């Protein structure tokens, strides 16, 4: 079984799905192609992959593909608990962090789709056409998380990627002024009229369930129920 994933979605939700699939079906071989949506769409049309998951808003209208919308992912900015942006507030309620204060420090991130990067910039009040400045960019989220302790680096990523660290208190989610709650319109893309293999369908269903878990975990999402659409 071969499927594709955009770098951001690969880091955010693919790993736990693969782990659960392998535990249940250890003898089934899986290959994941991590790439941008243009390359994944080409691979899908050439039948090199069964399906792919990515932010689908940039996909051109195409009657030859089916897209199952998965909704959006919450994204935040995270720092170590001793970061200067977390100086003890005078009141019990922590003060909101302004864009100017945030951007005074280096940002780290996995590769974010360009459209989501522009959305983040707009949400932070940056000028039209501006993109979020990222100083350290790496698709290895484990490496990025290791960079944050005892530094002034701020990590921006999906909430679920640092849920354990936030729960332990090693990372803190910054209260950013005017930050939108969710970003993206993630979807599963396959060829129209094609039925996925049983193994691929299991993985696709698990990806949908993982996205749905964001709502039950108390995370905001743009869409509660995945729905199929054609030519999006």
UniProtKB/TrEMBL annotation:
Xref: InterPro entries: HTH-type_LysR_regulators (IPR050950), LysR_subst-bd (IPR005119)
Q: Where is this region: Disordered?
A: 213-232
Provide the LysR substrate-binding domain boundaries: 4-211
Please indicate which superkingdom the organism of origin belongs to: Bacteria
In this chain, composition skew of type Low complexity spans: 219-232
* PANTHER family xref list: HTH-TYPE TRANSCRIPTIONAL REGULATOR YBHD (PTHR30419), LYSR FAMILY TRANSCRIPTIONAL REGULATOR (PTHR30419:SF30)
What is the protein's given name? Substrate-binding domain-containing protein
């Amino acid at each position: 079984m071969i499927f594709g994933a955009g770098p951001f979605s690969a880091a955010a939700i693919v790993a736990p799905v693969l782990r659960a699939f392998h535990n249940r079906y250890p003898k089934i071989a899986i290959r994941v192609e991590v790439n941008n949506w243009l390359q994944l769409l080409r691979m899908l049309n050439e039948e090199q992959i069964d399906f792919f998951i990515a932010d689908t808003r940039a996909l051109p209208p195409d009657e030859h593909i089916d897209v199952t919308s998965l909704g959006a992912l919450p994204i935040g900015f995270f720092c170590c608990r001793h970061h200067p942006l977390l100086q003890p507030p005078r009141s019990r309620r922590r003060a909101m962090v302004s864009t100017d204060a945030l951007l005074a420090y280096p940002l780290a991130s996995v590769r974010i789709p360009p459209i989501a990067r522009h959305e983040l910039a707009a949400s932070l009040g940056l000028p039209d056409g501006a993109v979020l400045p990222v100083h350290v960019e790496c698709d290895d989220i484990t490496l990025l998380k290791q960079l944050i302790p005892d530094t002034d680096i701020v990590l921006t990523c999906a909430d679920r990627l640092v849920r354990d660290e936030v729960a332990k208190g090693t990372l803190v989610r910054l209260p950013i002024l005017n930050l939108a709650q969710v970003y993206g319109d993630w979807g599963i893309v396959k060829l129209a009229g094609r039925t996925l293999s049983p193994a691929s369908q299991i993985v696709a269903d698990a990806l949908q369930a993982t996205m749905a878990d964001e709502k039950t975990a108390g995370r905001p999402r743009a869409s509660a129920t995945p729905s199929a659409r054609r030519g999006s």
